[in-house]
Amino acid sequence: MLLKADLHVHTEHSPDSRTSLPDAITAAKRAGMDFLAVTDHDVPPVDEVFSQPEREGVLLIPGVEYSTDKGHLLGLFLTVPCPAHTGRRLPFSEAAALIHGCGGVAVLAHPFQHRKEEGKLVPLVPYLDGMETWNGRANRKNPQANAQAAAFAKDYGLLPTAGSDAHLAQEIGNGTITVEAADRTLPAIRTALLDGKGWITGEEGSSLCVARSQYTKLKKTHAPPLRYGRWAAFALKCAWEDLRRTRRKGE
Q1: pLDDT (average), residues 125-142
Q2: Quick one: which of 86, 152, 175, 184 has the most CB atoms within 10 Å?
Q3: Nearest-CA neighbor of 96 among 104, 84, 88?
């Protein structure tokens, strides 16, 4: 059977999101998702993701997104919660070991979002199972980010994955992978993914969504007033990016 998943979604347990888990599930159902990976920053999923893996017809994939010294690393299909590591960046090898120790699949998230060179990623390949080749936010700074990721994953034999990187409910579904699985269970979709039985679709998310999530982070972390001034300039830039994108689509 064909099953669709968004493998990169944040909830209110991330510092830059206010999306509740029920709202994320509702948005996933509206977007036609069968599976949704909960990948909050540096913290394991809440207990109910493990204890109640199916909600409103949407199956929940336990995950995490670790901040490392080499970029962000997703852990997908965790069988037990990984330890939280807020406040510091983990060594990349340590983060990968934690994910594998928790039964998870290690996937490098948005690898070219902030870089264009490939050389620094090659030493990371032995620690990885896959690479995020479509991220709904990645192309904002580097228009070729997702294309570069897809080419790199192919060259180095890494499994391709896709996710919206949603921090707002409206972003869910901006990056998806559809797999041909034996049945509608977490083990089946994991097996299909690891066997490479899937194809990816996606669309670029709104830059203003990025601004809104950054505003959330300012509020949650009680940032000083000067930071809000910088945020306002960033929000204006994001609005301009969205306007340009809309004009290009209309041409």
Answers
A1: 96
A2: 175
A3: 104
